[in-house]
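The following record pairs a protein chain with its ligand, zinc ion.
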Amino acid sequence: MNALILIDLQNDFLPGGALAVPRGDEVLPLANRLQPFFPLVVATQDWHPPDHSSFASQHANHRVGDTIDIDGVAQVMWPDHCVQNSKGAELAASLQTHSLTKVFPKGTDRRLDSYSGFFDNGGVHTTGLGDYLKQNNVTETYILGLATDYCVRATALDSCRLGFRTWLIQDACRGVELQPGDCAAAIAEMERAGVQRVTSDQWLA
Ligand code: VGL
Ligand code: ZN
């Protein structure tokens, strides 16, 4: 059985948002078009407490874009974003949500970030997504959303590792690209790990 996983389609990652992904809004119509063709559709939602350790605002000596070490895990410093219960953390208004059977919050522990929809960045806590998919007899995952070089990448790599046949719907992803080439490198890494690429048109054909 196939599952579509929508990654972080939230206001703060859209143009005008706190951590805007360039042209992130372009994936929303594709997400809506694809949903009816999947028997199971789930979403992830970046969902941080106001004092989350990934926020540069919490570290006097660091700025947005710096990478620091927190308890042995590399952490990029981000602007405050996707704060729990804020407008920025809400799923995009134009996203169809009636087919979503479950939304998985992540990044809720202030000490740990969680790019992957499956586990936090330390690989310690699970969000429950993997068990949920297995309980629903999912064998193949189709992943789209934001951002290619962070949460899409991490979710796709974990999906492969957990044994799901994993597809990246490439035209339905956009990246942050802090450094030029980050998205290409992320896609190459996903492919090496066994993630297969497909476009929404190919899949719908
Ligand atoms: C994300 C950076 C920080 C993402 C989330 O959704 O890719 N990126 N938090
Ligand atoms: Zn975040």
